[in-house]
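Hi support team,

I submitted a single chain yesterday and got back a structure, but I'm not sure I'm reading the token output correctly. Could someone confirm the output below corresponds to the sequence I sent? I've pasted both exactly as they appear in my results page.

Thanks,
R.
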Amino acid sequence: MSEVGLEGIKKFGTAKQFASWLRLTPNNKISGGKVLSSRVPKGSNRLKIALRNAANAIGNLKESTPLRDFFHRINFRKGRVSAISATARKLGIIIWNMIVKNTSYYNPENYLYLDEKRKLAVQKRIQKQMEKHQFKVDDFNFITI
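Hi R., thanks for writing in. Yes, this is the structure output for that exact sequence:
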């Protein structure tokens, strides 16, 4: 709060503008439809350093949390430095939403990843087919483990 101030953070119209001011979003340089550069611009302030340190600490957590899992997904694909920047940006957006919109942080413990979504979609499709053909669960000899 000492870096931005309570009223200062509210001057940003969106969380994206706040993350851009923190220099945590990529600066996409495009010419003729071709991406020339998409690097995070240089420049730092105390809040950016604090968020990056917090993101690094999140990456070192042992227990699984949604932010830690996000960090590890990015780390696997793009490396630790990119994962720190991406998680710091996410933390900045969470902070902006908490202060400006006056909402508490909701930790999405029941977040469904892609494979879980696919599994639920298959289950829903099977139930639809069973209803369409007027089957009941008792008609099948399912063995539950």
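A quick pointer for reading it: The first strand starts at residue 29 and ends at 31. Let us know if anything else looks off.

Best,
Support desk
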